[in-house]
From TrEMBL:
Assigned protein family: Belongs to the enoyl-CoA hydratase/isomerase family.
InterPro entries in the record: HotDog_dom_sf (IPR029069), MaoC-like_dom (IPR002539), MCH/BMMD (IPR052342)
Domain MaoC-like: 28-141
Protein name: MaoC family dehydratase
Length: 165
């Protein structure tokens, strides 16, 4: 029940950016970071049917060059992209169009905290889909020591503000 002495509030919905709002000069820092646990790694690895011993077998991994299990690189990629959603594409994306230039220059370890950031490298209106635009994002993931653990270029189709549904 509303109080007649209290002004009515206008709703503010959390969303990502419309095409027009993506800024080529911005560095979007996605926070909070995500500290990765052993449970995260084992669950993600087994859920995706990846039987790589480097993620699951501590004894065998101890004999390998890094001396321990490593976090599944697909978890790293998924978390880098996932952490950008609330700030960039929540409710404004039409579709993921693709990924390219995915790299993992340094491993992520159990207990590391992953911090992600994104820049816009290109944007253009869609020639075939009125009211939508194509945005190219470069995602970078760094650990708590600021070491780059992953990069990816992602192309997304997003709504223009006037056409948003």
């Amino acid at each position: 029940m509303s109080d007649p002495d209290t002004p009515e509030r206008h709703p503010v919905r959390q969303r990502g950016l419309y095409f027009e709002e993506f800024d080529l000069d911005a560095l979007y820092q996605h926070r909070p970071g995500r500290t990765v646990t052993e449970a995260d790694n084992v669950l993600f690895t087994t859920m995706t049917m990846n039987t790589q011993a480097l993620h699951l077998d501590a004894a065998w991994s101890a004999t390998q060059p890094f001396g321990e299990r490593l976090v599944n690189s697909m978890f790293t990629l998924s978390t880098m992209v996932g952490s950008s959603v609330a700030q960039l594409t929540q409710g404004t994306i039409v579709a993921n169009l693709g990924f390219s230039a995915v790299t993992f220059p340094h491993p992520l370890h159990h207990g590391d905290t992953l911090y992600s950031e994104s820049i816009v490298t290109d944007k253009r209106l869609s020639a075939s889909r009125q009211g939508q635009g194509i945005v190219t994002l470069e995602h970078t993931g760094r650990n708590q020591d600021n070491v780059v653990v992953g990069t990816a270029v992602r192309t997304v189709l997003v709504w223009c503000e006037d056409a948003a549904q």
